[in-house]
Fold this sequence. Notes:
By secondary structure, chain A is mainly β. Chain A has four helices and twelve strands, in the order βββββαβααββββαββ.
Amino acid sequence: MKKSIGLHPLPFPAPVWVVGTYDGEGRPDMMTAAWAGVCCSEPPCVSVSVRPSRHTYDNIILNECFSVNLPTARYVRETDYFGLVSGRDRDKIEKSGLSVKKGRLINAPVIREFPLVMECRLIRQVEIGSHTEFIGEILDIRAEEGMLDSDGAVDSEKAGFFVLFSGYRGIDSLVGDPYSVGKELV
Amino acid sequence: MKKSIGLHPLPFPAPVWVVGTYDGEGRPDMMTAAWAGVCCSEPPCVSVSVRPSRHTYDNIILNECFSVNLPTARYVRETDYFGLVSGRDRDKIEKSGLSVKKGRLINAPVIREFPLVMECRLIRQVEIGSHTEFIGEILDIRAEEGMLDSDGAVDSEKAGFFVLFSGYRGIDSLVGDPYSVGKELV
């Protein structure tokens, strides 16, 4: 028997992405986003939703680009911090102890210590309500070689990514193979 | 040292949601989506991206609503099947062995056996490229009582949800508490 459980908090796994931008004076900022995901295959695009009050909101509109930096469990403290406070009035990067450098293809910072980064060019801005959704075309994905398998793909066991679901939680073992386990029903 | 790893497949955890719709003759259909996520808090909204070739695409536009059904590992086979074939020329529900009923608030089917369902009203349609993003306002979330904790919230350990990340993978143990673990850096 199901029952209505209200609309907050949303009760299922969500991504934990750190969005990197520069402000008008070239200062880097990072903001943790969970309202985010992939939204298109060709071109490959991601969306991140941001409240207009956030420093990141102004920065994305200013530079028309952003980076997405994927944290591992080792950096859960820094990742949580990036979601707790605004970069308007403090240097979150310095405080975090992490270091950044400018992206290769866009005017946005990427986090050196995080093992996977994406560079995205803003292609659409959708006003919804409390949040504005920014859709970015992924121009490049770079990963630490140590997290790749022998085929050059990210090894999910080595990656150490986590999701948000009543806490930050790691990724567990395989329960089935996509485009495979369902074939017996076809 | 990071290296570019190409843009396919996208190398990080994505949701696995089953999107429910009726077609013009009232036949229920289900499609598995991974390009999906939350995109706004107030009103609470989700987005699901669908190729125009899919039966679900026509159905969402026709009814201006859709359900989101969250599978557990027990139903990984049925979930994979819903992503493998089109509902244009076959009854995927019957073949899956699952059962559906009409949503309470919208004209879209929900899966009885899945423990968590959301009913969504279409509020925006964004053409991106290969995929169209449908943004739906969440009108109701219902969950099986057996997956709730003593506060009435979904218990992540009991839930059994999984994500897509080089395979369908379960959710592991806690690595940190949100809005808490980062406070020492504030």
